[in-house]
Amino acid sequence: MVQAHGTCHGGAIFASADAAFGLAGSSGQHPAVAQQCKIKYLRPVIIGDKLTVGIARGSESGRADVYDGTG
Predict the structure, then answer these.
(1) Which pTM does this prediction carry?
(2) Which of 25, 27, 33, 47 lies at a C-alpha separation of 20 to 30 Å from 55?
(3) Contact by Cβ (8 Å): 71, 53
């Protein structure tokens, strides 16, 4: 979704990250759901930019897994 000034809407970027986290959380030994998600927008995504989302398991504690993402 592109806004009038040619940048991608932050909600669309968030949805891409959320989908990647969902896939990562479902790929483990037990199904997982998101409890919290924070995003820091470092710069705008403009038309023609390629957006790649990377997810890695950061840590594990009891029933909680922490995933770190980049994009």
Answers:
(1) 0.75
(2) 47
(3) yes
Nearest to 71 by CA among 50, 57, 62: 50
Domain coordinates in residue numbering, the chain: 1-42
Handedness of CA 1, 7, 36, 52 (dihedral sign): positive
Quote the CA–CA distance of 11 and 9 in Å, as a whole number. Answer: 5
Instruction: Going from the first residue of the chain to its last (71 residues), give the mean pLDDT of each consecutive group of 10, the final group possibly shorter.
Output: 90 90 79 81 91 83 76 73
Show the tokens assigned to 58. 């950061």
Question: At 12, which helix (H) or strand (E)?
Answer: helix 10-26
Give the whole-angstrom CA distance, residue 27 versus residue 13.
Answer: 22
